[in-house]
UniProtKB/TrEMBL annotation:
Signal peptide, first to last residue: none
Protein name (record): MgtE intracellular region
Keywords associated with the record: CBS domain
Organism lineage: Bacteria, Bacillati, Actinomycetota, Actinomycetes, Pseudonocardiales
Keyword Nucleotidyltransferase: no
Amino acid sequence: MNRVFAAQLAGLPVFGPDGESIGKVRDLVAGLRLDQQPPRVLGLVVELATRRRVFVPMLRVTAIEPNAVTLATGTVNMRRFHRRPNEVLVLGQLIDAQARLASTDARVTVSDAAMEPVRTRDWVLAKLAVRERSGRLGIGRRRSSLQVLPWSEVRGLGLTDLTGQPQGAGQLLMLFDTMRAVDIAATMRDLPTKRRHEVVDSMDDERLADVLEELPEEDQKELLAHLAEERAADILEAMNPDDAADLLAELAPAEQSRLLDLMHPDESEPLKRLLTYSSDTAGGLMTPEPVILTPDATIAEALAHIRNPDLPAALASLVFVCRPPTETPTGRYVGCAHFQRLLREPPAELVASAVDTDLPALGPDADLPEITRYFAAYNLACGPVVDDQDHLLGAVTVDDLLDHLLPDRWRETGLHDITEGQEIDSA
C-alpha cells in the first residue's frame, strides 16, 4: 500500500512471517521535526496477547494490507513501550489536534493522518485529513468538508503545540467504539495525562465506568480526582458495585463520605454494606446484584435474565432462587439453578424444579484461600454468599477472585511475568 491512514491501522492484527499471531496495532509513533518537513514514522505500538504494549520499528514491517500487518523474520523487543520526549502518538495525540492552514490561517481539526513510503524505505506522515472549524452555531449549520492536505500546509503541530493546546476527542472516541473496555484502558494508560483527561471529559458515563473498572487502582484514583465530584458520583453509580466499593475503599474517609452522599440512596446503600467487609473476604469481593428470582418464576424468565448482553458471563452462569424480597439481602435462600440445567428444562416449568440445593454457600467472612478452594472444588464461575440467617447477600465471581490473587498492578505488566528487555523471535 502506498498510502495508509492511521485510523485504518487501529486494531489490525499483526502476524509474523509464518502467519503466527503477534498482537494488534494500537498506535503509530512518529518523530517530530523542527522544520516543516513531514515527520518520520518510527514504528508501531503493538499490543501482545498478554496486554503488554511493545514498540515495533517500521523497518520490521514487510506488508500492510487492509486486514493485517506482517512482520519480517527477526526478533521483537519485549520491553514495554514508553514514549520519548520527541515522539508523538499519532492516534493518541495527533488525531483531534487543533491547527491552522498555512495558506489562510483558518482553524482546522486533524481527523486523520496518512503515512507514505519514501525512497529510503522510511515512512513519513505525508498527508493530514483536516476539517475546518467554525465558530458559528445554529440549526442547519453544515459540517465543513474534509480536506486531505500535505503536512507542510498545516501549522501548529509541533511537539509543544500538541502537548500544550486543548484537544478534542471525537475521532479517538470513534476508534474506541470498536474496542473492548480493557483495550481502551490499556490505550489510555499510554496517553499523556492531559490527553487522557480530554478523553475522559468527552466519554459518556457508562463507557467511562467500564473503562475505569479495567484500570489499576492508582490510575482509577487519578482519573476520579480529575472529575467534578458530582460526575465522579455518577461514574461510581454506573460501575459494578464491587468494583465501585473497591475504588471507594482506596479513598480518604472524607472523600469517600462526600461521594457516597452525592449518590442516589438506592446506589449508595449496597456500597456501604460492601465497605463493611474486608476486601479480601467473600463479603468484600461479592457483587450485590446477581440474578435473583423467586421459586414461582419460570424457566423462560430465568433464561431471559441471563441472556442480558450487559450481564457478565460469570454472573450469567447461575440464577439464585430466594424467597421475597429479591433485593440483597434477600429472603430465605432456596438454592441456585445452573444455566446448563435451565437449557435442558421446558420453558414453562418453574425455576424451582431446576434448583440445586446441595451446593454449599460461602459465608461473608470467608477468606481468599477458602474462596479459592471452593471454586476449585465445585468447578464454578460464580458462587453464592449467604449469611447466618440464610439471606443471600450477593455472589462472588471467579474474575473478581483472580483480581485479588494476581500480583499488584498486573493490568500494567500483562498476565505473564515477562522481564524487561526480553526478546522473542517472530520467525
